[in-house]
Specification:
Blueprint: H1 12-43, H2 45-61
Length: 64
């Protein structure tokens, strides 16, 4: 039970630290996601082509 009080005792410095850490982890995640998409696009070019055509068709029929 003694460790339960430490969660609420977060200071301003550690909040900024955790915010910076969260941004760093998010940036790393987005880089990994983009890399995975590029790899998938290279491995499955037919799927990419059909997705591109489908998106173009959607854009053509979209009412502005």
């Amino acid at each position: 039970m003694g460790g339960a009080g430490t969660v609420g005792d977060v200071g301003a410095a550690s909040v900024a630290e955790s915010d910076a850490e969260r941004r760093r982890r998010r940036a790393q995640f987005l880089r990994d996601l983009a890399e995975a998409r590029e790899l998938r696009d290279r491995v499955q070019p037919r799927r990419v082509k059909t997705a591109r055509l489908r998106h173009a068709m959607r854009m053509r029929t979209f009412r502005w």
